Amino acid sequence: MTVLVVDDHISVVSAILSAINWEKIGVDRALKAYNAFEAKNILRTQPVDILLCDIEMPGENGLSLFRWAKENKYPVECIFLTSHADFQYAKEGLQMGGFDYILQPALYEDVQAALSRAVRKVESAREYQTYYAYGRMIHGNSGLLFDSALGRWLHSAEIDPVQLQQALDQLHIDLKAEQPFCFALLELLHSALPEKDAPPNDDLFRYGINNILAEMGADYGQQVLLLRYDKESYALFCYCAGAPLNEESFAGLLQRFLESCTQFYHCGAAAYSAGATDFAALPGCIARLNTRRVNNVLHAARVFRISEEEPAEPQRLWASNRKRWETLATQGGFSAVQAEIGDCLELMASSGTLTAEQLRSFHGDFIQLFFQVLSGMGLGLNDVLPDFAEREYFLNSYHSIEQTRRALQMAGAAIERAGGATDDEDRVQAIVHYIQENIEKDIHRRDLAAEFFLSPDYISHLFQSRMNMTLSAFVTQEKMRVANNLLRTTNLPVSVVAAKLGYNNFSHFSRTYKQIYGVSPTGERK
Asked: What's the predicted TM-score (pTM) here?
């Protein structure tokens, strides 16, 4: 259950977030926004069940925000906050379908009671929907059914139009098998995604981007369908009863989507556009788009069109230096060679024409050189990279320029460790310093693995053996230590302290603090 609190007064929002016992009334997440613009961005990108919204806000008011939510079919219950005693002012909100209104200033007990009633209404509606399981599956999870019904055709050489039309009709999708449409593959770029132990919540992400694309498509008079294509990408169908969009307009829509990924999800994405096509030509289009996708080794976050010419073969820029690098590296100058190889890789990348095959060849030459250096030191790969997952990553890091860059860094760090220049104690201290300097972030093993070129498992082992606690326990301990200091030495609202330490869920922050200090954050100041 998710509540979004919207008020242009920061103090009001902070007070509500701090005073309401969210866990008691069954709310898992309490989000905040300080104007209608911020609220719309949240509603577009993640599901919200209840809107607690001030009516009188500068710019767009709460009534207009709720009207927009209803027009865009966001299923929210709305409780209005108003300082006007005249009932007529709140009457409009109730006539639009608002759940309740609260006259300000109000007791927090009254606000919590209204929220509790709204929660019960949402829960009752959910229970009611269980009696319509099939209908809910069709309308609520159409994306999953679409994946199952049409996914096999995206990976096959031909499409049966009769069976396809049956699947579309069963899903109540207003798209005909012979109808032209615009098609693209949308890929999330790993190098731009936050590194976390657990992958991003796919249901939330899919919900968000589907809303964004539907809103953008509507600007062009188009409907959209989103299909999971593989682990990193989605297939996008954009269509209407008339003619499909022209290539320029569709590319413009895709560019807007990529910008939204950066704005709302802080991640990079690439779009591979086939433009206008139909189901008969789709298998061939997908094969060509996948070639473009594989060759995007630079992980460029842009729109690639199927009509663009394939990149030309670049010169093998490293060939003339290979013999010199071999001699220098085997004589103890690996760090200098590593730097030169890195410069060469960046020069190839800047050409803009580097393909997957050339990157694989470059990677193979570098790996061979690295093995020669290890052999001269009387070592094997297992000696310098003892972790299996780390070795696998190193040997297969040719799928993107970012992977190959990291392989270069891993090699340098491995040679340095083999020479005894860095010990475990130094590593732990460096990691601790990094955590303390980035305490406001949501830090995970993979963040540190990427920063220090170590495997996540090795970092866990390091902390357990040197600090006598898990990495996650140490990060939590450090966050709570900083929170304790802020609560004792500043007048910052508790919700602001929680936000400063990367906690979006106030209840979770309070529970964690109490587990460590035996008192709630609010109680700390009494």
From this structure: 0.51
